[in-house]
Amino acid sequence: MESWANLDFHLDLSGPGGLRHRLTASLREAVRSARLPPGTRLPASRSLAADLGIARNTVAEAYAELVAEGWLTARQGSGTVVAQRVEPPPPVKRRAVPDVRFDLTVSTPDITEFPRAEWVRSTRRALMAAPSEAFGPGDPQGRIELRTALAEYLARARGVRADPERIVVCSGFADAVRMFNRLLKPPVVVEEYGLEFHRSLWTSTVPLPVDDHGANTEQLPDDRRAVVMTPAHQFPLGGPLHPRRRASAVEWARRVDGLVLEDDYDGEFRYDRQPVGAVQGLDPEHVVYLGTSSKALSPALRIAWTVLPDRFVDPVLALKTDREQYISMLDQLTLADFLESGAYDSHVRRMRLKYQRRRDRLVEAVSPYASVSGIAAGMHAVLDTPHETAIVQTARERGIEVSSLSSFRHELSDDDRTGIVVSFGAPAFPRALASFTEVLAACC
Ligand SMILES: Cc1ncc(COP(=O)(O)O)c(C=O)c1O
């Protein structure tokens, strides 16, 4: 005999009305939504009644009603079957968007290059070496092993004055911004070009002009207390912050007792010279250093770090409630091993060479149509061109997504530069570049 339990199917008999009514409604809904597809044989009324612990008559009456309504058919000898005439649910309507063949909009690293084998080795070592205490509830500040490894790495590679006690591990730059949004009085000053998503995390922002020498910190207003900047490689324009402006940012912060939030998102990736050290090194009491693994490794890891002025450590930790907003201990220990074993350095070195070659190819390929502004760094570049709209539109028609420079502009900025922001981190970049160059030829 068939058993109802063999059907992976849930009957909800709760709700108003008598038992027969509820059973009928529940079966009807299952047929209507195609959870019970046409042709499905229902269990004999006796066995369904036994499974549900109700009277056989109740089931027989529910079946009869659904047969009368046309949802089920009953034939002598072949039992009760879901009727064929039931319409399948209409397909979900999707927006008509052209197929994206190449996404060159966001400057993520080449994710096909994630160092899987080395990461596995670090995971294994970290897991075997982890003390039992590591499997407990954890420290909202981040594992001490990771903070120690970061302090050493950041001092060596980025000139950051870091002490493990001043480092707080967080789940991405955005997570850090959300914390500071609760600690700082709005509005904060941001560069007039940047990610709209990041601006939207603040209660309110005001723009600071940016040129080839980075943000114009000489214009920082004395009635504000915080500025967010990308000194190593202005995002997205690509200039490095001029030494004079580095100094004046710090002088401003001291004068107004304010804070510089230094977004060092791709500081390790400089191709024409040694990377310039972090501004934080000039004054750790007035600069918050914000780093991330999103560019060097993968944005999917969601591991970032802040190096805080002493007076901010406790307020930031107070915002990190227990067991929330912190990263899996295993990922933290793995990254600590990855840094200490030198795997991080070799991965960055290897990727630097790749990106440098890609950027060289980009500059050469686009040279008949546009010049590339900014330094040789990072994973994206800006093409100076007045044909912004035509290029974005034509590229889209051909399945290539690129961003207009104006889409990064602060709504209160009166700047009118135009250009195209192109990421060269995309895995299929050589092919994407060939197609994109055809777009430029058509538009410029
Ligand atoms: C300008 C800028 N800052 C910071 C980040 C890092 O963000 P997250 O750590 O949230 O991935 C990115 C993206 O990777 C970025 O483009």
From TrEMBL:
Segments forming domain HTH gntR-type: 17-85
Keywords carried by this UniProt record: Aminotransferase, DNA-binding, Pyridoxal phosphate, Transcription, Transcription regulation, Transferase
Pfam families the record matches: Aminotran_1_2 (PF00155), GntR (PF00392)
Stored PROSITE patterns: HTH_GNTR
Gene Ontology MF: a single term: transaminase activity
Keyword Transcription found: yes
Protein family (similarity comment): In the C-terminal section; belongs to the class-I pyridoxal-phosphate-dependent aminotransferase family.
Designated name of the protein: PLP-dependent aminotransferase family protein
Organism: Lentzea indica
Lineage per the UniProt record: Bacteria, Bacillati, Actinomycetota, Actinomycetes, Pseudonocardiales
